[in-house]
Specification:
Blueprint: H1 2-8, H2 12-22, H3 28-42, H4 55-66, H5 71-79, H6 82-85, H7 90-97, H8 99-109, H9 119-136, H10 139-153, H11 161-181, H12 185-199, H13 201-217, H14 221-235, E1 241-246, H15 249-259, E2 270-276, H16 279-292, E3 294-295, E4 301-302, E5 315-321, E6 325-333, H17 334-342, H18 344-347, H19 361-372, H20 376-388, E7 391-395, E8 401-405, H21 410-417, H22 419-423, E9 425-430, E10 433-435, E11 445-451, H23 468-499, H24 507-516, H25 522-530, H26 536-543, E12 564-565, E13 575-577, E14 589-594, E15 598-603, E16 616-621, E17 629-638, H27 643-653, E18 657-667, E19 670-679, H28 682-693, E20 698-703
Helix pairs in contact: 2-3, 3-5, 4-5, 4-10, 5-8, 5-10, 7-8, 8-10, 9-19, 9-20, 10-12, 11-12, 12-13, 13-15, 19-20, 19-23, 20-23, 23-25, 24-26
Function: In eubacteria ppGpp (guanosine 3'-diphosphate 5'-diphosphate) is a mediator of the stringent response that coordinates a variety of cellular activities in response to changes in nutritional abundance.
GO molecular function: GTP diphosphokinase activity
Family: Belongs to the relA/spoT family.
Length: 704
Amino acid sequence: MKRTYLEHMLRQYELVERVKEYDPDADEAMLNRAYVYTVQKHGTQTRASGDPYFSHPVEVAGLMTDLKLDQETIATALLHDTVEDTLATIDDIEQHFGKDVARLVDGVTKLSKIEQMPENERAAENLRKFLLAMSEDIRVLLVKLGDRLHNMRTLHFIKKPEKRQRIARETMDIYAPLAERIGLYEYMREMQMLAFEQIEPEAFATITQRLDQIRSEDGGQVDAIALDMKHALLEAGITTEVSGREKHPYSIWRKMAERHVSFEQVTDIMAFRIICEDVADCYRALGVLHTTWQFLPGKFKDYISTPKNNGYRSLHTSLIYGKSMRVEVQIRTREMHRVNEFGFAAHWAYKQDGRPDGQVGWLRDLIEIVDASHDPEELLEHTRMAIYQDRIFAFTPKGALFQLPKGATPVDFAFAVHTDLGAQTVGAKINGRHMPLRTQLNNGDVVEIIKSDNADPQLSWLGFVVTGKARASIRRAVRLKERAEVAEIGQKLFDEIALRVPAKIGKKALREAIKRLEMEDEEDLYYAIGSAKIEDRAVMEALVPGCTAELENEPDWAKSGKALSIRGLTPGMGFQLAHCCHPVPGDRIVGVRRPNEGVEVHTIDCAHLANGIDSDWLDLSWGKRSRGAVGRMRVTLYDRPGTLAEMAGIFAQNHVNVTSLDQTQLDHPFTTYEIDLEVQDVPHLSRILSALRASDSIAQAERV
């Protein structure tokens, strides 16, 4: 078996000849050195298939020559596993092959040194390093995609099914979408096909079997349809190449899953590609097809006038052939076809003037997501959003075009234009009309964002935004604001703690305390106090070492007696208003502080306070001119027409907004509701209750 494989493996002179075909000036000596180096370093190592290990980097290099990439990329492909799997070092690579190749090899190698991490962290860290390496040089991605594609081709040799599943899932979730995003559709399709076979073996076998059956029964129908199209176009004076094929199994399976239909109900299994001489012929061919066969409204897409982000250009349409057969058709020029199959790599075929660009717009968005993401799960979620979905097109009022996922909203659009614009969004006009921020955009919408310098991203936006960039930016802004407000509470608590030590605390003592507690700065200390990550005594001891020795019997929550004001802080950020008692301004309140949970505000008579007996209690006050809060009441109405309208009228007369209304009991002749209202303070809530109790339509009204 090994002997047979070696007979077919790309030989040294064949690899060099491939490169010289498209780059006659390539450094032949360097390519030869790289080939020999990888064979020598990998030595007798073998793969799961039993083949010599060096066959893998040689095959990856062969894939890179198919993309006509420069000599540094070919050398990187040959050397990409030497640092990880042999005694070679990056310094060795630099010494033998130069800084450029060493940097690229290092970029690819870094992705592999994380095997000991838990599953989700490993995937996220892999992605994080991957994106950062890509941002410096996109060739790192091209080599890695070639590496993954060849590994997928030999995946069936791995004996452990769980390992095959893990590699296939990672390929489907990360590498295939990345190949799609840079336009490497050939790589994407093959990766999806090979991964699908491992992840859903039964579905793969069933669909493949059905496709074979169709192929054997159709009597050359695909060729017949292609010939019909070619003749129709030739009669119109358009010379074309027409080819047809069945869609690959994963594409059919995904369509079945999305539409919740069986194989028999998937009508557009056949796809045809028409290659024209120039752009004008593409549009003429489209006209001929639409006048010869009925086309399906809503299925036409013009990616020639508005290309995809990855440079993909083509006309797409769906036709009804014969009486009921649906077929998909793609129309493009030969140059478009070359770029469409090889994506950005087609633009980076060897250039005389130096190395290819490493930055593209969507990649910059991914880097922003890496910076904004808080943990591995969040990073994976946001990045998958950024690299997956189908796209729509929307415009700024000045005509700038932005591509967004289906379901995107004006907030997603604003963040796509610029992170700062997204953060300052307060409203939007869609096609000249004011619309809610959660409105889903349609193809061709013109979106004008209304902004305010004083605005902040809202936590509620996470309920409707769909882009990874928007979600990552909103979460980051919310986290920063929450941290700032918790630190503000912590600073007030620190001032109280400082009053309890036997010394006047100045800047010097504070700096020394921060050092003793091994913290970065004052904000770090205040945040730790506000979020109960550090006990008051530890802070006192850091300020004045030895001062807590005499406080053995003093409870840790002993305070100066002055209530802390929460005025200016935002519910849900610096503190949480308890859902058990719904405190509103004017209530006597206390705060319960638990580690890593922030401060939860309760009314002083809340029954649930007994559950927090071991927690740190804070004496709180609302402060002057506090903003309102949500109060809850239980109202029992007489069950007859008009009573609900009368209650709503009372709310309107008292200028109150209803945020929630739940029917909790229906006991004829009474109906009971629990209602949440946005009120200014306790007197405001009391006036509403009094007005309700005075109504003949209402049997009972009480605060909950």
